[in-house]
Amino acid sequence: MATSTITEQSATTSFDGSAPDFSKYDYKNLEPYVHPPETNEKLNWAELVTLDLEDYDRPGGKERLAKQLEHAVHHVGFFYVKNYGLSQEEVDNQFTLAKHFFALPTEEKAKYECNYAAADYNGWRRSGRRLEHKSLDNVEIYNIPKFTKDFEGKYAQPDLLKAHLPEIEHFSKALHSNVVLPLLRLFAIILQLPDEDFLVKQHSYEKKSEDHFRYMLYRKRTPEEWEASGGGLGNGHTDLGTVTLLFRQPIAGLQILGDDGNWTWVSAQPGTITVNLADTISHLTGGWLKSSVHRVVTPPKDQWAYDRTGLLYFARPHNEMVLNPLDSPVLREAGAKSRFEKPVTVEEWVKAKQTLQLNPDISAKRWAEAGDGTVEVLAGFRDRKYKE
Q1: 124: β partners
Q2: C-alpha closest to that of 113 among 136, 139, 94, 141
Q3: Where does the chain show beta strands of DSSP type E?
Q4: Cα gap 50→41, rounded to integer Å
Q5: 343-347 long-range contacts, Cβ below 8 Å, gap at least 24?
Q6: Where are the alpha helices (DSSP H) in the chain?
Q7: What confidence category does residue 212 fall into, taking pLDDT thresholds of 50, 70 and 90?
Q8: Cβ(248)–Cβ(268) under 8 Å?
């Protein structure tokens, strides 16, 4: 089940040397994705700040946005952004590609399956590999790495996606430049870093890092299957990178853990991307910037008949960056210390955490060994299970 590789030529030509016919994958020939209806249930929704990125380039805009964001990144770890430079049509097209990718036969998707043993998460991750309570998980994932020389020709793509790779590349790069980099400057302002571009320089698109774009699908379940799954209540976790960008989709399920120990639901706000902070940015601040704990649980009953489709972008620092606290007066005043017993690079961190995430047998064994609801990921840093 190791990932297949392709040459540059095979991505654009057939074995007989002719150009492949991708016309059947034109959007006019693909049934468009339609979002399911929103729930009518009254849920305990989280109150999250929304950043208008149109204000970023206006005089004083960065400072206003940083002030607006300061509480969220220190105490909550979740917020929304809007006006991020991609049209609704571009977003809808990506949902349509996700829909049609996951509808491919299993034997076709298996050609692009990720290499679990090597902790390589790019490619297709099949559902049913992880035990959730008394049933197997219902989640499928397809990850596409950055469009750089480091990954060129390394991963095969199905014809459906080959036909649209230029726009997938544009979409991914737009998210990086329009959302990730501005947010990093806001974090630098909040941390009072001497160089406002310091974090930007550690996240340049061209240099090798493990950023990736993701299609994700939670398949619908019967009431009996939801009960057997435990409803996702024990799946609280943090993401392992810098920030995660999640496009609006209306199936309720995402919850965040507050400082008060209670879970609240994250709503699908029109025209926004939901952003959450993750582990590496938290490591770089000794935990001062909050890596948010979140989970996906059973949706309300009026949404049980629908699949839950996601578009996500994961940003991470360059592989070579060492995860020590940054030179920041804010962090010095807070007494921030390294969360590791020795210097750890981003590449080492990613591989250690992905090994646990992609290999349920290894993960179960190591969680059981600790016996205290925690597991050592790397160099003394421990993950833990979160309140149900």
Answers
A1: 113, 142
A2: 141
A3: 50-52, 78-82, 123-125, 131-132, 135-136, 139-145, 212-218, 243-247, 254-257, 263-265, 272-277, 294-296, 308-315, 374-378, 381-384
A4: 23
A5: 344/283, 344/378, 344/379, 344/381, 345/319, 345/320, 345/321, 346/209, 346/210, 346/280, 346/316, 346/317, 346/318, 346/319, 346/320, 346/321, 347/210, 347/319, 347/320
A6: 61-71, 88-102, 106-109, 159-162, 165-175, 181-191, 198-201, 223-229, 279-283, 329-334, 346-358, 360-370
A7: very high
A8: yes
Query: Residues of the chain with pLDDT > 70: what percent?
Result: 95
Q: What's the rounded Cα separation, in Å, for the pair 56 and 182?
A: 8
Name the amino acid, one letter, at 295. Answer: R
Topology of 43-384 in CATH? Jelly Rolls (2.60.120)
Task: Indicate the residue type of 27.
Answer: Y
Q: pTM of the predicted model, to two decimals?
A: 0.94
User: What is the CB neighbour count within 10 angstroms for residue 293?
Assistant: 19
Q: Does the pLDDT at position 132 exceed 90?
A: no
Contact 114, 142 (CB under 8 A): no
Closest CA to 110 of 92, 128, 137: 128
Task: List the beta bridge partners of residue 82.
Answer: 52, 272
Number of Cβ within a 10 Å radius of residue 373: 11
Q: Two tokens at 15?
A: 């074995």
Q: What mean pLDDT comes out for the span 145-165?
A: 96
Using the predicted structure, report yes or no on whether residue 144 has a pLDDT greater than 90. Answer: yes
pLDDT tens per residue, range 354-384: 999 999 999 989 999 988 989 999 999 999 9
**Residue of 177, 172, 179, 142 lying closest to 272 (CA atoms):** 179
Contact between residue 54 and residue 248 where contact means Cβ atoms under 8 Å apart: no
Domain positions in the chain: 43-384
Averaged pLDDT for residues 236-247: 97
